[in-house]
Amino acid sequence: MVDDLAGPSRVADAKNWVRPGKAAWDWWSGSVAPSVAHAGHNDTTYKAYIDFAGRFGLPYMMIDKGWAWRPQGESVNLPNANITRNAVGVHIPELVRYARARHVKVWLWVNWLTLDKQMAQALPLYERLGIAGIKVDFIYRQDQEIVAFYHRLLSEAAKHHLMVDLHAAMVPRGLARTYPNFLTQEGVMGLEYNRWSTKVTSGYNVRTAYTRAIVGPMDYTPGGFRNVPPAQFQERSIGPMVMTTRAQQLALFVVYPSPFMMLADAPSAYEDAAHRPVPGADFLKLVPAAWDETRALGGTFGNSIIVARRKGSDWFVGVLTDEHPRHLAIPLSFLGEGRWRVDSWTDGTGYTAIDRREGAVRSRSGSLILDAHANGGAALRFRPVR
Fold this sequence. Notes:
Blueprint (H helix, E strand, L loop, with lengths): L1 H4 L15 E5 L17 H14 L3 E4 L4 E2 L12 E5 L5 H9 L4 E7 H18 L3 E5 L6 H16 L3 E4 L8 H4 L3 E4 L16 H9 L35 H10 L4 E3 L4 H4 L10 H6 L6 E8 L3 E8 L2 E8 L4 E6 L7 E9 L6 E9 L4 E6 L4 E8 L2
Parallel strand pairs: 1-2, 1-9, 2-5, 5-6, 6-7, 7-8
Antiparallel strand pairs: 3-4, 10-11, 11-12, 12-17, 13-16, 14-15, 14-17
Helix pairs in contact: 2-3
């Protein structure tokens, strides 16, 4: 309904350059990079994340706050930075070239107040450099002035072939239809709250699927791979924990919509020392960021939810449960006729464990039965057997 009531597209050539996709991201993990001597806001750290994006087949790398020049001693959160200049130790043109050689494109974080002042200089520069998009942060408003800023920003960004993620923003109002370069927005208490609070629980994740996620694209940033029971959870900004099983983190990539989907955790959380995917990370390599069809398959508000989304001929299913174990049935009638190969990533014996299975089903076989753990879930892929 939100999309249908929105104005039609004002970007005539969007199909030629707007590309949904997943991204590596340095901020949530605290720029964790064991292979880098002094990890942080510097080229070496960013290149480590770009290397990971290239290995994982991710089309994007989000370089978050800290890359731009700012007055000495000023916090990276304040608006007096110069987003047309690099901070010491950061060279965006070189990083863009480095990423391009690995088939990765770069997004940049900016403070909205800074961008508001420097938009006429920054956006043409980013286009010349080959930047794919910008994450505009610290908005925290939805008055008429800020909505006018949204329209001006999205229109100007489209002129320079830049995609946009509005962070710390209001919930969707249909602007993604009017400006297709507007891929996603926050408007949600996302995974970042695990760094400083105990608010993002499995029950919260289920409730959010029924409320915020049905309104429009949601920059929740799932993918926390330091999974612990709630009793063992500790708030920390370096290597944050999450209070769900790993299978639930995988399922969030299906249940929550976002054409620009960031993998929250550090490369070292998804790969071992030999760059082999850890349990569950293989699903993150193959799950799409944009979909052709969506079906609600089951669940009860606050307790569980089952969502199916189709990309091409393949169907993906995400299952979330709250703080209680659930015995669930996934109806298969949505698949249509024929035989289907099913790959599943379900809760294992511990919070970081994945029970990985393969099999075959027919839609006429009724339902798949799933025993999801407390704070758990499941991710499945169905492929037609030719």
